[in-house]
């Protein structure tokens, strides 16, 4: 590198040190409407046009972006049946958008539809009416091969009843005409739960589609976390539900300080990409099996169509006695990568809460954890935070959506996570004595390389990559780190061959090293 280019690089580095860069830009999706809205977001990135993103949020809100999440428009959805919450948004192969929700008297599940992201919503169709029974926590999935739309829900004789004669069960209905009409509901669950809408109820079902048009459903029941499957478009199901957890655990209603109610709803996805994990089914949830002061995110996986499941593996990689909750997951169907989002308190002994993501590129064998919120917030039991947050991804466009509370008012946020890099950090058990930045390995490299650094004391760490002109490419790390040694895997899949520099800064310590990408 000649002297003029070196001077340009040094000048650019100096200018960059005068300002603080967030690793992922946060964008407000929606401002506060009242003290309990917007919460419980559902989000979908249109896989056929990733600039289009739709979000639904309690109680009757929708938000859409046509520029990849940088700017948002807000609307209120209306239906003659009423709108009360639990939104679920989807998109089909013709870029029609769907908005599923409950109604005020809990009598039915409503599906509204629009032909374009900026279009007018239909009044809606419905399913689930069964006398005076109550429906709760619906969710839906679309089979992109045949266009079938499936919706599941929990039906209660009387929602919240402590009468031992009242019960709950999981139901499913199918539409073969784009949500205009619905089949007679079928009961998926074998065993009824109580009607209390808490532990030991049948609750929180979620469907997913398999590689050969199978329909998978998971839910939480009186015996634990359950799974069932249909190979004939939801008409018939396995003779016996499969209990994934083996025994009942504290799953639906548990305590996290500062949060009114914390459920561990299960989230199911199936890999339909061309990856080596094609057809694998994943279920994610949160629970407190490690203790009441330790809420964790868990994942189990099946590679044989749901008949057998792996032992749960912990997704969050922090130490004990911290809380991770309201987890959601998705699969980028362009590559099979798993993405998770959850509230996280690993950095605090107080109620301060960050938003973290995790990523797995190896079928759930290992996980990258990284913070996506630019600042923490402190929830209170006086503020309703909802029961879940959301995430969607396609072709490396990843959009988590969450609620935060400031001055007792909720607002809705996303982060611009476009995967130019893979940030994978692992720690050792030996505390280093000095700051160190190691030479990346391998070097030269293609397609990925590892960057190791050491932190002797709790510090704010900045690890960034620059091109030869000093332009910042990406911030690999931009947060406070505990004393430890870390390894970051850098995956510049969208960069061209050439010389790049990576720079570590921690207080007065600054070091820069060169690496070479060869494609």
Question: How do the strands and helices of this protein lay out in sequence?
Answer:
Elements: H1 3-16, E1 26-30, E2 39-45, E3 53-58, E4 61-65, E5 73-76, E6 85-91, E7 97-102, E8 109-114, E9 125-127, E10 134-142, E11 149-156, E12 167-175, E13 186-187, E14 193-194, E15 203-209, E16 215-221, E17 224-230, E18 242-243, E19 267-270, E20 281-287, E21 296-302, E22 313-314, E23 324-332, E24 337-344, E25 354-360, E26 368-371, E27 390-394, E28 397-406, E29 409-415, E30 417-418, E31 436-437, E32 449-455, E33 459-466, E34 472-481, E35 484-490, E36 498-506, E37 509-517
Antiparallel strand pairs: 1-29, 2-3, 3-4, 4-5, 6-7, 7-8, 8-9, 10-11, 11-12, 12-13, 12-14, 15-16, 16-17, 17-18, 19-20, 20-21, 21-22, 23-24, 24-25, 25-26, 27-28, 28-29, 28-30, 31-32, 32-35, 33-34, 33-36, 36-37
Describe the structure.
- With 519 residues, the protein is mostly beta strands.
- The protein has two domains: 26-418, 6 Propeller (Neuraminidase); 436-517, Sandwich (Immunoglobulin-like).
- It is built from one helix and 37 strands.
- It has one helix spanning 3-16; strands spanning 26-30, 39-45, 53-58, 61-65, 73-76, 85-91, 97-102, 109-114, 125-127, 134-142, 149-156, 167-175, 186-187, 193-194, 203-209, 215-221, 224-230, 242-243, 267-270, 281-287, 296-302, 313-314, 324-332, 337-344, 354-360, 368-371, 390-394, 397-406, 409-415, 417-418, 436-437, 449-455, 459-466, 472-481, 484-490, 498-506, 509-517.
- The strands form nine sheets. Strands 1, 27, 28, 29 and 30 form a five-stranded antiparallel β-sheet that branches.
- Strand 33 and strand 34 (472-481) form a beta hairpin.
- The two termini are 20 Å apart.
């Amino acid at each position: 590198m000649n002297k003029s280019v070196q001077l340009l690089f040094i000048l650019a580095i100096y200018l960059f040190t005068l300002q603080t860069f967030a690793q992922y830009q946060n964008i407000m999706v929606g401002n506060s409407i009242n003290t309990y809205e917007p919460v419980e977001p559902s989000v979908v990135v249109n896989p056929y046009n990733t600039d289009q993103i739709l979000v639904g949020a309690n109680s009757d809100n929708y938000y859409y972006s046509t520029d990849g999440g940088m700017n948002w428009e807000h609307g209120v959805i209306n239906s003659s049946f009423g709108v009360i919450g639990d939104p679920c948004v989807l998109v089909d192969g013709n870029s029609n958008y769907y908005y599923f929700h409950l109604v005020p008297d809990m009598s039915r599940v409503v599906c509204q539809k629009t032909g374009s992201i900026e279009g007018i919503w239909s009044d809606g169709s419905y399913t689930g009416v069964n006398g005076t029974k109550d429906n709760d926590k619906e969710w839906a999935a679309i089979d992109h091969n045949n266009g079938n739309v499936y919706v599941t829900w929990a039906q209660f004789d009387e929602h919240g009843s402590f009468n031992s004669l009242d019960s709950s069960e999981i139901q499913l209905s199918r539409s073969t005409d784009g949500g205009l009409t619905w089949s007679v509901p079928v009961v998926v669950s074998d065993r009824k739960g109580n009607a209390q809408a808490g532990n030991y109820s049948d609750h929180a079902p979620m469907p997913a589609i398999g590689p050969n048009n199978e329909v998978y459903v998971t839910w939480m029941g009186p015996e634990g976390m359950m799974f069932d499957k249909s190979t004939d478009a939801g008409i018939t199901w396995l003779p016996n539900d499969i209990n994934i957890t083996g025994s009942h655990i504290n799953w639906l209603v548990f305590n996290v300080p500062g949060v009114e109610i914390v459920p561990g709803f299960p989230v199911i996805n199936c890999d339909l990409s061309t990856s080596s994990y094609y057809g694998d089914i994943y279920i994610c949830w949160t629970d407190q099996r490690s203790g009441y002061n330790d809420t964790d995110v868990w994942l189990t996986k099946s590679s044989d169509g749901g008949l057998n499941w792996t032992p749960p593996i912990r997704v969050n990689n922090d130490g004990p006695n911290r809380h991770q909750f309201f987890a959601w997951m998705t699969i980028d169907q362009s590559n099979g990568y798993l993405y998770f989002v959850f509230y996280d308190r690993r950095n605090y002994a107080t109620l301060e809460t960050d938003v973290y993501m995790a990523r797995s590129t190896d079928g759930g064998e290992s996980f990258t954890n990284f913070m996506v919120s630019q600042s923490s917030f402190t929830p209170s039991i006086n503020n309703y935070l909802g029961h879940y947050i959301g995430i969607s991804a396609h072709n490396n466009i990843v959009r988590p959506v969450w609620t935060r509370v400031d001055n007792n008012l909720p607002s809705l946020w996303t982060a611009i996570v476009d995967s130019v890099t893979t940030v994978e950090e692992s720690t050792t058990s030996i505390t280093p004595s000095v700051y160190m930045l190691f030479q990346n390995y391998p070097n030269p490299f293609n397609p990925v390389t590892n960057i190791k650094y050491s932190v002797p004391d709790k510090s704010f760490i900045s690890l960034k990559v620059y091109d030869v002109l000093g332009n910042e490419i990406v911030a690999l790390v931009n947060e406070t780190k505990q004393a430890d040694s870390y390894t970051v895997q850098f995956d510049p899949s969208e960069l061209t061959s050439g010389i790049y520099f990576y720079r570590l800064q921690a207080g007065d310590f600054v070091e820069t090293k060169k690496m070479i990408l060869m494609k």
